[in-house]
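Hi F.,

I've been meaning to write this up properly since the lab meeting, where we talked about keeping a consistent format for the predictions we share between groups. The idea is simple: the sequence comes first, exactly as it goes in, then the structure tokens exactly as they come out, then a line or two of notes. No screenshots and no reformatting. I'm using this chain as the first example so we have something concrete to point to.
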Amino acid sequence: MSGFSTARLKMVDGQVRTSDVTDRRVLDAMLTVPREAFVPASRQALAYLDLDLDVSEGGTKRFLIKPQLTGKLLQAAEISEDDNVLVVGCATGYLAALAARLARQVTATECDSALAAKAKDTLAGVANVTCKAASCAEGDASAAPYDVIILNGATEVTPDGLLGQLREGGRLVGVSAQSRPPRAIIVTRTHGEFGHRSLFDAAAPVLPGLERAPSFVF
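Output, unedited:
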């Protein structure tokens, strides 16, 4: 077993399973998808550590969120093999690659055009993923409505533009940093109304474009 394969197994056993992720499909996806392939070569040694991993190469900081949070959000999303999924702020595409093993179709958006291009190249062999450069708040209406929307990070505002792209019965999962402490949430759409439910305490970098507007202070 290679060093990265061993590290991947340790990540799943030591970080993901121990965080109450029991969904076999999610665990299998995380055991299969090589996280190091989505990390710059200079930081591949950090690929399986329990941290939000900076994958930016200049410009706006962009991250792969922690493996344990990734697993817990995927489990909460309850993605089925027939689902149409949107991954928001996909960075280099790791979360999109995982979702692609669970869903029928995945659209992944990234606000950094260089990272979006890198994600597209890395995922070129994955037939059911489409990567696009787009703002995190914008999503991608062309492939909507979505059964599931997953945020690869946190939001400090209500993402109305994304919620409008949810299918009836659909759900959005991510981290809400609108209050303290930040919490992982699931938002469901039922009869045109949105229900919000907190899942667990969680922290993640705020996605560009989903920050709280600065307030004026004397």
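Notes:
The longest helix spans residues 3-16.
The chain has one domain: 3-201.

If this format works for you, I'll send the rest the same way.

G.
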